[in-house]
Structure formats: C-alpha cells, structure tokens
Fold these 4 entries.
Entry 1:
Amino acid sequence: MTTYLKDTQCKMNRNFTSSDYYSNTWMLSLPVEKWWYRITVGSGGRGKTYSGRKLVLKNFKNKKRKFVWLRLTQKAVDNLLQNNGMGLFPSELLNKYGLKVKVKSNAIYLNDELAGYVASLQDYYNSKGQEFELAPDEIKDYSLKKLGREKKLAKWAQFDIVADELIREESERNTFDIKKAFQNQIENVVRTKRGIRVFIYANYLTEIRDIEELFDITLVSGKFGIYRNPNTKAVIEYLKDSEGWQSSQSESYARVLNVDGGRFANKHTEENRLVIYNHLLTGSKIQFNLKIDKFKYTVKRWKNKLVIAHYKGNENSKPTYALLPRFITTTEKYNKEIRLLLSEMFNKNKLSFTSYSIYQLYLKHDVKN
C-alpha cells in the first residue's frame, strides 16, 4: 500500500526545504532493512548522480564499502569506463578523497583495491551465475550497530547498488524488456545477501516508467513529495525544480532552444507519461472501439488502466462508441457512461494512449471540450 507525504510536509528532508543542490542525507538516514530501494526523481542538474558518486567514493575510502553501478546498455557502461574510469568519477572527487581509479574489464579499482563493478541491464543474461567479488575483508559499516547480536553477519553485504539513466534514447531500438532486465540484474547481484541499499536516480517521470511497476508505486505528475510502499520496501523522493536551479538554467544554451519535449526540457509533464507503446501491452484485452472525430480507435484494458490504441481492423466484434454525439455517422452509438468512464480514468491517471497524436486528439475533443 502506497503512502504519500506532500512536499510542504517534508520538513525533515532538506531537498524540499532548501534551494541548494541535492543531498542524500535523508535517504541515508532510513533503516536499511526496512527500505531497500531508494529512488529520487527530479530535474537534471540538481546533483543527484553526483551525490551517488560522492557516496560511493566516501564509503570506500572510510569503510571499504563497495558498489555496483548499473546503466541501461552496454554502450552506456563503456562510456563510463572510458579513459580508465574517468567517465564514472569526476577528477575533483577523486582528488578530494585521495583516490586513483583503474579499470579491468568491468571492475573498478581504487588505489589498486577492488572497489566495485559497472554492469548493464541489457547484459543481465550473461551475468547469470557471475559472482561479484564484493565480500569485505572486514565489516566496518555503521549500520551493523542497529542489527543486534542475534543477526548473522555472513549474509550481510558490504556494498551498495546505484542505477541511473535507465531510459532509452528516442533512436534506440527496443531489444529487451527494461523491467525484466532490472529485476534479473538485481537478482544476479544481490542473491541471498542482505543490507544492500539500491539508489536509483532519474531526471523525469518517464525514466522510471518502465520499472515503477516493480515497486507498485504510481507517481502523479506535479504532485511532489515522498511516496512509500513498505510491501516493496521502496521510497521515492519526487522533487520539483528549486528556485536556484531554475535561475541558473534560465540562460542555458540548450534550454533556450524551442524544442518541445527534448531531453533538456526538464519539465514535469504528463504527456510523455501517458503514452504506453503498443508492444508493452502484453496481456491486454479489447473492451470496445471508440470514434474520435473521423478516426476509429480501440480501447484496451491493461492491468489497472484503459489504453486507447490504434484500430487494426480486427476488433469488429466489439461495439463502437462515439466520444461525442456529433461523431456518429452510421453504426456508432453514443453512450454518456462510456465518456464519463474515460474521463474518470483520465483524472485518476489510469487512461493511457499508444501514441502522442491519439493523446492530443482526445485532449482536444474531450478534456478541453
């Protein structure tokens, strides 16, 4: 069951009360056995990923705590590992903690000690059976103090998992299921270990759309705050743009360009979130057909949502309803209850579309009508 705390009530978390860059202090204060997954969603440039990199280096320097860093594709992993790992850790952080980085295959060494691994979700199948060498020489982690003597330390891990940029580029082919890949790669890394914290950083809601079902939490666009689901041991910080960030980005070279919906838009929009591509609708069932203006679509039930999809001609056995009376031509019928149902599902964030054009058409003729 999901609980929600409005952003104005999150005074214990400085990310909701300060205009400074992102701080992971509150996330780190959460009990490790109660909250395994710690997800932060907010505008790019607030320093979320930077805070994760800083945490990894600081923990290895002070506690020998290791890490696994996850990216979506092997290409993204290669970009992190290029120039001997300089794509993963900025030089100013390495200098701050007095560390030198070396790369051997996908393993990261800091001051010639094994510190962690970089892996991709795409390559999860090849990671099956791979044993990541993450056992510490000596357990020093502060969180062990809270366990009690009855706990068995053999299963207690001394590493964290960090994941970021879990979204495909627009031109990238869809060759694997992100949700399945994430779940399996987590299993590959964690196995029977306990005490692992999984940090996930995303700039936009669309970046976690593929995996948020795993946590059984649905974020509402623009409804900032803290979402929790104790059943999946997940907590999400949903952050809005800070005033300082907005000011610093107002004259950005990329952001002044008039490209709607680009990766530099940094807007918490609902449009992208409402689009579910047709290939993801596994197990969906056709409910009825829908005519909007001059176009015919099919309405499918998928999980707890209704999805308006392109009509493919094989839905003739289902009745066709006109969204508005003026769209009736021959065989269509108008049913006010159907329109109210769609409107209610839309208001509850449970009406989706298989393309942006369908969404725009529905918005034009119903929501704004």
Entry 2:
Amino acid sequence: MTDQPPLNPADIDTAPPVLTEVNGALPADEVEIWREKFIDLSSRYEALEITFDTYRRREKAGDILNTLIVPYSDNIFKFMVFYSVFVGCVLLMNSGGRFPNPISDTVMSFLVGSTATTVLGLVGMIVGGIFTGARKAGD
C-alpha cells in the first residue's frame, strides 16, 4: 500500500492556510519535456476546436435549410394546386360554353401547354437545383 497516513476529515481544520513550496524543483530537461507536451496538447486542442466549429456550422446550416424548405415547399404545392384548379375551371367553362366568346382550341392548348411546361420546369429547377445544391455545399 502507501506510506501515507489514512485521511481524516478533522485534518481539514488543522491544515495550513497557505501552501508552501515543494522542497525540490524539477530538473530542466523534465520541465522542457512537460512544456513540449503542453504545447502539443494545446495545438491538438485548437485543431479539434476548429473542426468542432466547422461541424457545428454545418449542422446549423442544415437546420436553417430545413426550416426554409418546409414553408417554401408548402407554398409550391399550394400554388400548383391553385394553378391546376384554375386551368381546369377555364377548360371546363370554355367547353361548357360559359364564356360569351369561346377561346379557340389552339389558343387553349398553347396556353395550357406552355404555362404548364414553364411552371413545372421552374419549380423543378428551384426545388432540384437550389435545395439540393445547398445541401451538397453544406455537407
């Protein structure tokens, strides 16, 4: 075991109020070894801290993107539903003779086809390009 006496809680009351210096100093070569170890640990700590900050920023960016994607995707869905209902109503009203001057079939097909292609292409580019590109850049 050890050569030291057992610990007693009453020793706290008899302990000196100030610590005295140790009677022996470390040799110079041992001080240098400990200094080098301290410097090495400090540099490792700084490198790990930088890495940790990088990962924390990536996680934060991912959280921000998630909060932005949800309302935007909801708005895209609402717009697409509204657009589809509007075009469907125009088609049904035109085919039912509800307009005083009916729209020609050529104009209707051009209107529906070009607008649908533009809207679907735009939505596809935004959803596929921006959000996917942002996630790849954040990873």
Entry 3:
Amino acid sequence: MKRIALAGALLLLFAGTGWAQVALPELTPAAPRYFFSDALGITSVTITPDNPAALQWGKPHRWAFGQLKLYEKDPANPANDQDASGRYAGVRGVGERWAAGIETISTKRSPTTFKETATSGQLSFQVVPGLALGLGLERGKTDNGTTTDRLKGSTYGLSVNLNKVFYLGYAEGTEDVDSGGVSASRDVTMMGVALRTEGKVSWHLAWDQVEKNDFAGGFTGKGLDMTTATVQAGLGNLLLGVQRFKVVFKSANGDAKATVVDVGWAPEKGLSVAARVSKGETTALGVVQLKSELRAVTIAYKW
C-alpha cells in the first residue's frame, strides 16, 4: 500500500466539520466518529455537532465517556497494518435560549508511536423561536515522537427548527494546519436536512453534504466532498441506527466509504449504554488501499 505522507494525513485528520449532524444532533447519546487515518481521522464524539447552531436542538443535558478500538489493514502489504486504542468524553447543556458543549478524544497507535488528540467547544443561541446561530472552535494535534503537528478550526452556522419535525442547517468555517513549520488553510461549507418524530417510536432521518476546498498555502490539493445518510430509530429505550458515508477526494482518483451501525439502551433520561461498529475502505484508481474497522462502547447520563 502507498500510504499518504504524515503531513497529508494530518491535513485530512482534523475536521470538526467531519460528517453528519449539520441540521440536528443524532439520537445516539454519544459516540466516537473516526474514519480512517489516511482519509478523515478523528472528528469528534457527537456531543458537539458539526454545525454548532444545531446544538440548540440537542436536549436533554448529558455527559458521556467511552473507549474505542480501531483496526486498519493494508490488503497489499500486511506489514503496514495498524491498531489504535483511545478514550473520549464530553458534556453538553441545553437551555431554552442557549446551548454549550465541549468534548475531547485521544488515540494512540501501534506499532507506530503516533498520538492523536482533538478537542472542540461550541456555543449556540436561539435568537428567535425556531432559529439558532452558533460558533464552534476546534483544536487538534498529532505527535509522532519526534515532531508535533497542530491543527485548528472555526465554524459558524445557523439551524432552522420547523415545528420540531423538520430541520435545516448551514455552516461555514476554516481549517488551518501547521506541519513542520509549513502552514496552510482552507474553507469548509456544509448543509443538511433532518426529520425527527417523537413518540413510542422515534425516528431520525438526515442527509448532510460537506465540501472542503483545496488547501491554500504550503500544501496543494487535499480537497474533498463528503455525503452522509443517517437512519436512526428509538424503539422505547432501545436505540438502533445505521449511517452510510462516502468521501470523494477532489485532487486524487480515490474515495472512501464506510457503514456505521449503532445499538444501545438509551432512555430519554438517565443512564445510557451504546455500542458502535464501523467498517469501511479507502480506494485509489479502483484498488482497495486500506480497510478499517472501528469498535466503541459509550456510557452516558442524560438529565
């Protein structure tokens, strides 16, 4: 396998605007969102959504923590196989007119010495009934034992709540990276639509589109388009969900795809336990370059 260089992977690793949750937070109490180290990498823990304005519709309050395990395999060269283990945590509070959240996630790879961390914080305000504005900040870094590459981003957006059933979201932001003294930045835009029904059976249906431009500065290319489709159902206290992702790399003949399955015990309030399994692959010129599998368990409390 021909792996993306460290700097290239880092440019794609950090993105608080990773995938999904543009119009409305998921039903999952919390879960790590990790694609592939050579594609998207760590994004967040779903405590804070990609569009910070959507946090306003994320009742009830909650805290959560969990552990993850990631397996990456190179079909052409097993010597490139890697594992990663990590932890994550977050908390969010949602009032009638405001909402705030913060989360953090960290992983350590084997047999390499890479350590990856990402932290994000968000604020949102309901300026008029049904309309929320939000601001989010993210910070991340990767330490390979010799050098540390730092990443940062900011996002601002709006989300519209139509009768607590239909939701629309739009946000813009920037991502900046400093790798070995070389800096670069790019613009990010996202839009999404979601439908939520409440009752004995709750449904969450969402579609999101995220566009990341090519970097300007010390790096070239790396732009990508991401599409996410989400279906989640709350059957009483039982949570079931499936998500499908596709990423198309603008400056390369490749893409990444993944399917995520969520299962959990998630009452409206109180203690929740959920498991997430994700499987995907990255291809270039039609040849599979990397296969990935994520497993995670989350414990959360909502009040």
Entry 4:
Amino acid sequence: MSDLQVLGTLTGWAGINTDFLSIKLPPEDESVYLTDCDNVIIRNGRIIKLRGTDYLNSVSTQLGESGKRNVLGVPIFRKYDGTKALMAVTPSKLYQLVSDETWTERSDTDIGGVNDSILSYANADDKFYFVLDGSGIVYEWDGSTFQAVSFTAESVTTLKAKFLLEYKTFLILLNTNEDTTAYYQRFWASNPGTITTFSSIDKLDLEVEGVINGAKKLENSIIVYFDQGVYRVEFQDSYGWVHEAVVDGIGLYCPKTLTGTKDVHYWISQEGLMEYRKGDIPRSISDTKFDKLILEDIDPVYYYRATAQYYPHLHQLFISYPSSGSTHNDTQIIFDTSARELISKKTLLGEN
C-alpha cells in the first residue's frame, strides 16, 4: 500500500463516494473518483456530500436554471498540452470550475436537455464534445469557444445523435437522427482524424429492431448496448468496421447504470446485474436473493433514473435507484464485485 495516498487535501470532494473518509486511492485514478456525481445529493443545482457535511461548489452558487438544476455529469476536459479542466453539465448549461468554489458558464445558449437527460462526452481533436440524449445536438468547447458542431455528413444535411464516444482517431455517433429521421440502431463513425466528417461507408445498422441505449469501450472494441441485446464493434486495418452480436435478449435495462473500465463493464439488465470482461461473454453476477431484493424493488415507472459507478481499486459497485413508489433515487447499494455479494443497502437522505 506504499504507493497509495489519502485524499487528505481533497476533503471538499470526498463525499463523491460516501465512504471515502478513510479510503486510500492511487493518485493516477483521482480523476475517476472526483468526476463521479452518482452518489451525492444534488439540491437546487448544488453538489453536496451525501452526509450533508459540505458543498462541492459554493453555497451561494446554483448551477443551471430554475427547473433544470440537475447536474448530469462532471467530466474532465483534457487538452493535448496536458492541461485539464473540470466541467459540469446541467440540462441547460455547460460550466467550468475555474477556482475552488467558482463555476463559470461556458455555454451561451440553452443546450436543450431535461433533468433526466443522459450525458455522453468525448475528448477529441483537442476539444470537449458532448451531447444530451434528448436534444441530440452535439456541442463542442475548445477552451475559448462554445458552439454546436456543424457536421459534414454524406447525403445528410442535419446530423444528430443520442450518444457519442471517441475511439482511436474516430468520433462515434450512435442512435442517430438524420434530417429528422430517427435511426435507433445506427452506428456512424467519422472519417479517421477528421471527426466532424462522416461518410456512408462508415455507417452501420447493427440490428433490424431494438434501440441503442448506450455504448462503452472495452479493450480495443466498442460495446454497443441495446435494450434487448449487446453488440461488439471494432475497426480492423485490413477489413474496416466489423461487428458481431454478443448476446441477444439481455440488454441495458437502466441506461445510466452502464459503468466500468476498459477491462470490465457492469450494468443492470432484465436478467439482473451483469458483468462483461474482456475476452469473455456477458455474465450475470447476481443471484436470486439479489434480484428479489434489488430488481423487484426498483420502481417500474422511474427505473431509468437508476445510476451506477464502479470503483475498480475497491472492487465495489455503487448503485442508486428509485425504490418502488419513489420518483427519485432514494436507495443505494454497494456490491462487492470480487466476492460477488451485496455488502450494503441504505436509504439516501433527500433527493439525488
């Protein structure tokens, strides 16, 4: 443990994982923990430690606008020169943390989201790209200019997407809207190195039916999660884009629960809590007792609000979800991914 250090100088951030008061973490992974907002209470646009001991941002500062104050994510913008900036995205605005307690708005227009929007983002071409699944408009911030991205797409005038990610030298758009026509199964990769230009040859329709609910990189592949299936997509120099169905009938039930690293993914499916490790197939890691305790407890109307975050050095998975009858995430569980057992279940204070 000599290579680990306590987050002693970062106590203002400690509440992002509710049990970090005595946890030690590798320095190189600080950003992973500091940018996760899944297990904090967010009240009126203020990010607060779960135990109510402190605010992440100034008490006098509220992010977002009235009715749109949910903080959807706190990603890091990384530039080629090594500089980093902490960003915050609400349904209406993009902010940057410019000092310990000061958030500065970087957007100059309402970005068109709602409090239940799903945020996806990418650091590519020395810019920060992001999209909210509701509006589908991709925005960019280069450190000085904020604007909607103007794509050049073959045979398409207006290109939108519900999800995006960076992969090698490509920008990937998923579940697209092309000239007002929705393509729920579409995967479209940009030209390599020219990430705002899209050619028809790099366009894939992965299924005949179904809806893409998210995507995440796993080793050298992109794993695309449908509501009722999982696909693997990879670019190979000799063949171009290749794809295959990984599993059918088991999909991403709660879209915001997709979490993990480049080596392993976790999510909640219709069959329980799933794990997908590189070189393996997706497997259920929950049992009947877990499914009865958790899955049957998730509210059937507001299940899509459930969130999850995986902490690899703790081998723990934090899941927050609305219990039956609740409209917000009022319950949190901690699952030990090594022991394959539930180690904690508790009621959250206030609305998450």
